[in-house]
Design a protein that fits this description.
Radius of gyration of chain B: 20 Å
CATH superfamily of the largest domain in chain A: Nucleic acid-binding proteins
CATH class of chain B: Mainly Beta
Helix content of chain B: 10-25%
Radius of gyration of chain A: 21 Å
Strand content of chain A: 35-45%
Helix content of chain A: 25-40%
Number of helices of chain A: 3
Structural class of chain A: alpha/beta
Strand order of the largest sheet of chain A: 2-3-4-6-5
CATH class of the largest domain in chain A: Mainly Beta
Shape of chain B: elongated
Number of strands of chain A: 6
Distance between the termini of chain B: 39 Å
Distance between the termini of chain A: 64 Å
Largest interface: A-B, 25 and 23 residues
Order of helices and strands of chain A: HEHHEEEEE
CATH architecture of the largest domain in chain A: Beta Barrel
Strand order of the largest sheet of chain B: 1-2-3-5-6-7-8-9
CATH topology of chain B: Lipocalin
Number of strands of chain B: 9
Number of domains of chain A: 2
Shape of chain A: elongated
Structural class of chain B: alpha+beta
Oligomer: heterodimer
CATH architecture of chain B: Beta Barrel
Number of helices of chain B: 2
Chain lengths: 137, 184
């Protein structure tokens, strides 16, 4: 009888833990790239070249992963829809590295300044898009 | 003889001159979708759609990165990318079509013009025809604001929803598009 009670209590506790975990997992928000180890550290020109030379290979290597990119700030805009956007120059007038930051209060980098950011690569669509970025230096 | 060559060249290039392309483009188009069910509503937005609209021919193309859709919850975004649209395998959604009801003459005449758009939408490696009504607003500054909405079904694009969450995802998804074009 006592054993059955213990098993019941254990099952209830396990059920409660599973329920709490499920709720936490369901409600989990998107996190920025602060704690992510980048799959690559490279400059803006090299990242664009990776996509323009072989988009499939670059998609396989970078998409969905954190990438650390350095370059000169070409422009910055926002906040818009709660996001700041910083464009890194690639030397190609048609394509940039577009870095989205989920922090609308961040200080806008000055065009021409050197910046290193880390963000999740979303792919190449005229520009290479990095999301949920953080400034490394 | 020299005059004849000039006349011939002029005659050959005349069709191109008459059909000079008037193109508008953006790299910040807004595409969102909404799935409404009694259990939950799921909405995602993408502010990085690229698009080119050739006003002279009506040709329009819109491309979005599937991973650039932002959801309220991380779990929804992960399921969308990994299980449903398989964005590693199919990173882009592309629409290529034709806008009717808007002619180059409208540029310079601010106002809202009802249009219809018809073309092919490719998602998840599957291409299906799409047709929708919308509008193009010519703004005094000369920019164009195009809006449309249409409905897509995940089934049509071979997007399989697991039984466990089938009731959480609508069979008809509302897609909203709003694009502010700048002249090229």
């Amino acid at each position: 009888m006592r054993r059955g009670k213990i098993i019941l209590i254990v099952l209830v506790v396990l059920g409660a833990i599973a329920g709490i975990y499920g709720l936490w997992e369901y409600d989990r928000g998107l996190t920025d790239a602060s704690d992510e180890k980048p799959v690559d550290r490279l400059d803006a020109v090299a990242l664009l070249n990776a996509f323009t030379n072989d988009e499939s290979a670059a998609n396989a290597k970078y998409n969905g992963h954190a990438v650390q990119v350095s370059g000169l700030v070409k422009d910055a805009s926002g906040p818009e829809n709660g996001k700041m956007t910083v464009m890194l120059d690639t030397g190609d007038p048609l394509s940039m590295i577009v870095c989205e930051f989920d922090d609308p209060a961040m200080t806008r980098p000055v065009p021409g300044s050197q910046l290193t950011v880390k963000g999740f690569c979303a792919g190449f669509n005229l520009d290479v898009l990095l999301q949920r970025c953080v400034i490394v230096e | 003889m020299k005059n004849l060559v000039i006349i011939l060249l002029a005659a050959l290039s005349l069709p191109n001159i008459l059909q000079a392309q008037v193109r508008y483009a953006t790299r910040n188009g807004h595409v969102s979708f909404l799935s409404e069910t009694p259990l939950e509503n799921i909405e995602a937005t993408n502010d990085k759609a690229t698009s080119v609209l050739d006003v002279s021919s009506g040709a329009v193309e819109v491309a979005v990165l599937m991973k650039a859709f932002s959801f309220e919850k991380a779990l929804m975004q992960e399921h969308f990318n990994e299980n449903y649209v398989e964005s590693d395998k199919y990173p882009k959604g592309i629409f290529k079509g034709q806008v009717t009801g808007f002619v180059a003459d409208a540029i310079g005449k601010p106002g809202t013009y009802p249009v219809s758009v018809k073309g092919d939408l490719t998602i998840h490696g599957v291409t299906k025809p799409v047709e929708a009504n919308g509008s193009i607003m010519v703004e005094p500054a000369g920019t164009l604001k195009a809006t449309t909405k249409f409905i897509v079904s995940p089934d049509d694009f071979d997007i399989r929803i697991p039984g466990l969450v089938r009731d959480n995802i609508a069979k008809q998804i509302n897609v909203m598009v709003q694009i502010d074009y700048q002249k090229l």
